[in-house]
Amino acid sequence: MPKFFIKSDQKNKDIVEIKGQDVKHLRNVLRIKSGDEIQVGNSETMEEYTCRVEKVEKEKIYCKIIKESENNPELDIQVTIFQGLPKADKMELVIQKSVELGAMQITPVEMKRCIVKFNEKDKNKKIERWQKISEVAAKQCGRSFIPKINNIIELKNICKISKEYDILIVAYEKENKQHIKSILKQLPIKRPLKIGIIIGPEGGLEEEEVQILKDSGVKSVTLGKRILRTETVALNLLSVIMYELEKVEVENEK
Fold first, then answer.
1. Of 80, 82, 87, 108, which is closest to residue 203 (Cα–Cα)?
2. Are the C-beta atoms of 77 and 94 separated by less than 8 Å?
3. Structural domain that includes position 197
4. Nearest one of 99, 56, 96, 104 to 80, comparing CA atoms
5. What are phi and psi of 96, to 5 degrees?
6. Same structural domain, 249 and 207
7. What are the pLDDT digits (tens) for 2-22?
8. Pick from 99, 218, 92: which is nearest to 155 by CA?
9. Is the peptide bond before 147 cis (omega within 30 degrees of 0)?
10. Distance of alpha carbon 155 from alpha carbon 201, whole angstroms
11. Per the omega criterion (within 30 degrees of 0), is the bond before 192 cis?
């Protein structure tokens, strides 16, 4: 069943209003008609609805909520990916797969070894494109909301917000003592749990940058003996985190 997102002001009691580019997709691609059912997610409240199409107009589609879903796919584990800006379309891959694997938001970060440099105009265009990729990925995998792509920041800005997280982790190839699994075992059981993952660009993080992060309380972890590409690190860490912490959540529900 196709899925689309709305904001709270697009819902009036049991009627939701689809508008914007989604209308063109529903009308011209899916050939939606009255009586068809679609899945709708409120990107602000994370509520999920099964809706029946009531009326199809040129610029709006009106649907009636026939059931509110009780199976929210979101976990109480809020992961932010701080991704050092990579080359070409690697950032798009990181965003797409991070959204599929459960990331709450992705923040692009300018680091010393980043080859890519954007002016302010290009930054805005990139954020818009990356946000659209996040939206498409969220629809495809059935997320309850669209993970946000934040504005591009500098590494030092992460240090300023470190206390907002229960833990911040940096993947570092020169780390040889702390593994991600041992770090996760130290986390509190309380929920929601806020985790930040810091990933370097293609050239990796400089030692000075890692030390700055450590001085702010960031935990350095190894991902094993192999050196992973920058676009692989988020997938690796998210898979481990979601497996380990989702497992704990399920066990606690028994």
1. 87
2. no
3. 77-253
4. 104
5. -55, -50
6. yes
7. 789 999 999 999 999 999 889
8. 218
9. no
10. 12
11. yes
118: CATH: 3.40.1280.10
Same domain, 115 and 183: yes
Give CA–CA dist 133/127, Å, rounded.
Answer: 10
Residues 222-245: tens digit of each pLDDT = 888 888 899 999 999 999 998 888
Residue 196 binned pLDDT confidence (cut-offs 50, 70, 90): very high
Determine contact, residues 177/133, Cβ cutoff 8 Å.
no
Helices vs. strands in the chain: H and E counts, helices first:
7, 13
Closest CA to 171 of 197, 138, 208, 150: 197
Strand partners, 149: 106
Cα R_g (the chain), whole angstroms? 20
**Token output for 111:** 């680091």
Secondary structure letter of residue 192 according to DSSP: S
Whether 157 and 127 share a structural domain: yes
- Contact status, residue 84 vs residue 125, Cβ threshold 8 Å: no
Q: Measured between alpha carbons, how far is 122 from 144 in angstroms, rounded to an integer? A: 29
Of the candidates 233, 242, 244, the one whose C-alpha atom is nearest the C-alpha of residue 94 is: 233
User: What are the CA-CA distances from residue 34 to residues 37, 38, 161, 177, 250 (Å)?
Assistant: 9, 11, 48, 60, 39
Mark whether 18 and 91 lie in a shared domain.
no
Pull the structure tokens for residue 214. Answer: 């450590």
Total domains, the chain: 2
Q: Note whether 98 and 82 are within 8 A (CB).
A: no
Tokens, residue 9: 């002001």
Q: What is the pLDDT of residues 82-128, one digit of tens each?
A: 999 998 799 999 999 999 999 999 999 999 999 988 888 899 999 99
Residue where a domain terminates, one of 24, 44, 68 = 68
